[in-house]
Specification:
By secondary structure, this protein is of the alpha/beta class. It folds into 2 domains: 2-125, no CATH class; 133-159. The protein is 16% helix and 40% strand. The strands form 3 sheets. Strands 3-6-9-16-15-14-13 form a 7-stranded mixed sheet, with no helix packed on it. β15 (108-114) and β16 (118-125) form a beta hairpin.
Length: 174
């Protein structure tokens, strides 16, 4: 099965073969409780190629608490990982590999835990500090900034050295 759009799951569904989540697709797991059967799940009997978006939508007044876990996907094999995760329509940011911080989940974070045959989602305590490695856009701004400073300094040197110098002939002082 290939998913190019939104696949909304409110119960466990089984795919007897491979599952290919494309770049444009989204798997939306509806969660109304933390017991199996209270949330959407996907069982893939073959290879699960995960790309695109991973969404969670809380229903019936359910809220997430630290320590809860949801076995959302089982598979015979897996390739790739989802590009993004959202909770109740709000995008979360990935602060470390498979660790997501969601602004609408005050004080908690979501962690994707891959094992040999499953993807489990765990609610963990504490907000995650950002990764110490700068984003590519930060590196680009640093390179542009330092290049600009270097060019400005080089130009200032050229302007100073290109001014004519006056020489005084004769002895100094009277």
């Amino acid at each position: 099965m290939t998913n190019k759009c939104v696949l909304e799951l409110d119960a466990r569904e089984t795919i007897n073969g491979n599952f290919d989540q494309t770049h444009s697709g989204e798997v939306d797991f509806l969660i109304s409780g933390d017991a199996p059967g209270d949330y959407g799940a996907l069982a893939v009997m073959g290879l699960a190629k995960l790309d695109g978006r991973f969404a969670l939508d809380l229903e019936d007044g359910f809220s997430l608490s630290a320590g809860e876990s949801f076995d959302v996907i089982t598979f015979a094999g897996v390739k790739n990982d989802f590009r993004s995760l959202s909770l109740d329509g709000t995008m979360c940011s990935e602060n470390a590999t498979d660790l997501w911080s969601c602004s609408n989940l005050a004080g908690l974070s979501l962690e994707e835990v891959f094992s040999a045959n499953s993807l489990e989602l765990e609610v963990v305590t504490g907000s995650v500090s950002p990764s110490p490695v700068p984003e590519p856009s930060t590196w680009a701004m640093l390179v542009i900034g330092f290049t600009t400073l270097g060019l400005a300094a080089s130009r200032a040197r050229r302007v100073r050295t290109s001014k004519p110098r006056r020489r005084l002939n004769g002895a100094m002082g009277a």
